[in-house]
Amino acid sequence: MTNHTEQQYGADSIRVLEGLEAVRTRPGMYIGSVSTRGLNHLIYEIVDNSVDEHLAGFCDTICVTLEADGSCTVCDNGRGIPIDLHEKGVSAERVVFTTLHAGGKFDNNAYKTSGGLHGVGSSVVNALSERMTVTISRDGFIYQDKYSRGEPEQELENGLLPVIGRSKQSGTTINFLPDPEIFEKTRFKEEDVKSRLHETAYLNPGLTIIYKDLRGETPDEVTYHEPDGIAGFIRALNRKKETVTDVISFSGQYEGIAVEAALQYVNEFHENVLGFCNNIYNAEGGTHLTGFKTVFTTVINTYARSLGSLKDKDANFTGADIRNGMTAVISIKHPAPRFEGQTKTKLDNQDAAKAVAQVVGDEIVRYFDRNLDTLKSVIGCAEKAAKIRKAEEKAKTNMLTKQKFSFDSNGKLANCTSRDPKKCEIFIVEGDSAGGSAKMARDRMFQAILPIRGKILNVEKASIDKILANAEIKTMINAFGCGFSEGYGNDFDITKLRYDKIVIMADADVDGAHISTLLLTLFYRFMPELIYEGHVYIAMPPLYKVIPKRGEGVYLYDDYALARYRKTHKSDFTLQRYKGLGEMDADQLWETTLDPARRRMKQVRIEDVIAASDMTELLMGSDVPPRRNFIYEHAADAELDI
Predict the structure, then answer these.
(1) Which of 53, 430, 472, 607 is an active site residue?
(2) Which pLDDT tens digit goes with each residue over 26-48?
(3) Distance of CA 392 to the CA centre of its chain
(4) 408 is catalytic
(5) Is position 465 annotated as part of the catalytic site?
(6) Hey, where are the domains in the chain?
(7) Which residues pair with 546 in a beta bridge?
(8) Options 190, 362, 392, 511, the catalytic residue
(9) Over the chain, what is the mean pLDDT?
(10) pTM for this one?
(11) Who has greater pLDDT, 381 or 16?
(12) CA-to-CA distance for 351 and 374, rounded, in angstroms?
């Protein structure tokens, strides 16, 4: 039997998106989201092209300006985008800015290494900009092209760009204004942009990046130039910590892959190893980090046995033992990188592991042979970590594994029926009232509910014994099933995670935001892999429901949506304001917040590790004056619920 819907599905149902129309229709596929993160990503796409010019040896200065009119200008002194006639019959520049998967990155002679290998960056930014102006200085002349929402504004004579002047310099200047039809907000977030540019300067010690912000009453200008490279990056990461060793840095090349590494030990038993490939931060690591960790573990265990720190009867130090206290940055330049997924969060090249292992294995042995005191300090850190790990394994086992799952309404876990982690999700719900509604509203097959009472412990201020003794935290650790990485034992195992999605479901008020922040602090400090591997979400329950005199009610998720509704609906309607999740009945909670087909959720991601760590310490730590100053400076940005 064929139903009506199936009969409507024919050739005319298949829509072909031509040119850049696909980008404007599905922008999230290309830049991740249309939030501030996606907005800032436009800048990074253009900057990355200029960085590729630097890597090719033709650019040493990039200037990024946030203009007073809300646009952004990126200028470099590279070769300038080619302007000669392409085989398509128009200037090569126009092909680059109007065609997906077009660019010099596909020509091995143009770029040996590149971060933007998909050839979509410039054209995507063009498609998502209200206007864009491209100015190119090359071969003694200045050329210019202009676009509006991806479409050229000017006809070309014989396919070539018009000459607007002469110049002895070379380079490319791109100015673009984000399209308000695409983005939720069109104001670039300066802190994120500056942090990303600074990180890029660390990874490219021969590059100077000038940042200017002309939007405020007082212009802001910062120059980023880090001649010490990733060694300086390590010092920045550890600037507030007590160090155990000096920064150890080295570089080398193996089979066409350039490898740079820097590391330092601090007096905190916590591992912080970051991987980059072609200037792209790989949040989920990959083969380059696997190569580093494997060879470093082997080298230290070999030294430990030769120095007598490990006896014949002793088991080797684990990799986690050896890396406790380590801060490291591994940066490689690969001619043909492969990443898992479009976000490039995990490197997949097997030859990268081999290259890193070869370079690190040779160089670290050479260093330790000449610096015996540093070697002994590293082994001492591993010994201390191993002793504490063994002592705490029993305590943790007793503390965390004896607790049984419960299905009562006393703030315990109401688990789901399915035991397939890929299908299961757990909602951490604030309060007994909301927890009760959520338990009635959920799909018991794959949705678990874990109510928590009040605000959990602030782990940024608490000692480890208090953290592990906290009932709410113990319940969460036990429910997730993957352990707890507090640095000493480091027994967190992401493969044992029982739920693909961990969803924070709190009220849309100040207290709810505080509870969400406390939970995120716990996850970031002691279960960071949950965030890095994309398992943590924040539910987005609606703030309002409008009920018109005629027609069905509509849920609105923020004040902006309410304002838009009022502009477009002139007839009378009743407005219902949800002060908390407990005010919703089970049906409302299901259709707005729990139903996978209709709900809205934000995925928690970390793009800048330095900024994330600093902000967590600033907002949740014990040092009051910096936090007070931050609140004063950003008070105007707050959205108040009056």
Answers:
(1) 430
(2) 777 777 778 888 899 899 999 99
(3) 32
(4) no
(5) no
(6) 23-224, 230-398, 425-541+602-610
(7) 554, 575
(8) 511
(9) 83
(10) 0.69
(11) 381
(12) 30
